[in-house]
Design a protein that fits this description.
Layout lengths: L2 H28 L3 H23 L2 H25 L22 H4 L4 E3 L17 E3 L5 H37 L24
Antiparallel strand pairs: 1-2
Length: 202
Amino acid sequence: MGSCTRRHFLLSTCFLQMITIIERQVFDFLGYMWAPIFVNFFHILFIIFGFYGAYHFRIKYIITYLIWSFLWIGWNAFLICFYLNVGTLDKDSDLLNLGTGSVSWFEVNGYGCKPTYPTNFTSEDPYRPIRPERVDDCLLTYDLIEVIHSGVQCALALLGILGAILISYIFLDEDDRFDFMNGDAKSPQHTVVHPILIDCDC
């Protein structure tokens, strides 16, 4: 795989990540899921770092993107466990909404969903949204949709890690083979030219 192909691979992966995370961010905003909103925002920034690093061959930006991708996989693995109620995690808790009581937008707005709300319900907190007693006829339940979202993000992050490692390998390999006369193999137009001093006894 040549350097151009590896570069295009990472650029394409970053582009797909940007599209999917913007879609996810929109639905997290609609559901007032504040913790995912903040983390998604950071992910958008690091995708930009990765894209910039791949486009301009900047190794520091690519390594930053690489490190973040591992953290991003950890966050999405946590979300998968959260929505699947793994261990002590509870998808009905206020962990992701930071105490606002809101839930995933897909709980009542998923395709085919028909929510049933309590008829005589008085809430102690008027700012806390009312959740339905049950939701019927959903094509996919909201927790399954969120797990799919996180699974897609994990898969794209793994592709991004692969692309970043391949490009980083090119940089390191070029540094080992072509770093002569204090030049920069990645930017030949900035190669340092030293004068040659000839010491002759005439």
